[in-house]
């Protein structure tokens, strides 16, 4: 009998050639927020954004990682056209928005947003670092996440921005935290 595929949040973090695997949860332009739920092995509707608001870029998770908030690491993906929930692609990291999120109960936790470029993208193929992004783009993305979290009853505070190496360190730490949580050793 063939072995079944692992749930999407447990796919390998890295591809064979060292790129990052990403699972898209919410497509660019979507007015709805979706998140993968392992219990259902499906994408669950989380909330509708206000009229006229939509995700500025594809948004997803890095499988087999665990962030400070207990969820897989979040990643914003630059791609030529919107993907779809469940699409698995390879990406290269270009940076990170370092942020804190204040929950409605007052607890504060780190909830960074990695930024990556789809490996097979054409329009964004030249982007290797945050400095290659068009002027103002990161300010707009940070404002979107601030507004989006405010609507969900949370706060979102940008602490800083990091380069591709800082993002890579977060991914390695997230993969180690996931492996520890699963009782595995990744060394």
From TrEMBL:
Keyword annotations for this protein, in alphabetical order, are: Hydrolase, Magnesium, Metal-binding
Q: Which cofactor does the UniProt annotation name?
A: Mg(2+)
Alphabetized Pfam families for the sequence: Pyrophosphatase (PF00719)
Q: What is its EC number?
A: 3.6.1.1
- Give the EC class as a word: hydrolase
Q: State the SUPFAM superfamilies in the record.
A: Inorganic pyrophosphatase
According to the lineage, what is the superkingdom?
Answer: Bacteria
Any one GO CC term of this protein is: cytoplasm
One GO biological-process annotation of the entry reads: phosphate-containing compound metabolic process
Q: Which GO terms describe its molecular function?
A: inorganic diphosphate phosphatase activity; magnesium ion binding
Q: Known PANTHER family for this protein? A: INORGANIC PYROPHOSPHATASE
- Which named protein is this? inorganic diphosphatase
Source organism (scientific name): Methylobacterium terricola
């Amino acid at each position: 009998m063939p072995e079944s595929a692992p749930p999407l949040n447990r796919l390998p973090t890295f591809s064979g050639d060292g790129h990052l695997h990403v699972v898209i949860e919410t497509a660019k332009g979507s007015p709805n927020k979706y998140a993968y739920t392992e219990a259902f092995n499906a994408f669950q509707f989380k909330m509708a954004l206000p009229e006229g608001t939509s995700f500025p870029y594809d948004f997803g998770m890095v499988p087999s990682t665990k962030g400070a908030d207990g969820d897989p690491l979040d990643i914003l993906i630059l791609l030529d056209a919107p993907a779809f929930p469940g699409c698995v692609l390879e990406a290269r990291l270009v940076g990170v928005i370092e942020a804190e999120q204040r929950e409605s109960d007052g607890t504060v936790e780190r909830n960074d947003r990695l930024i990556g470029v789809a490996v097979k993208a054409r329009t964004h193929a030249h982007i290797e670092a945050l400095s290659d992004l068009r002027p103002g783009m990161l300010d707009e993305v940070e404002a979107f996440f601030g507004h989006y979290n405010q609507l969900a009853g949370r706060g979102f505070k940008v602490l800083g921005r990091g380069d591709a190496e800082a993002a890579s360190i977060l991914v390695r730490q997230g993969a180690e935290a996931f492996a520890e949580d699963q009782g595995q050793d990744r060394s």
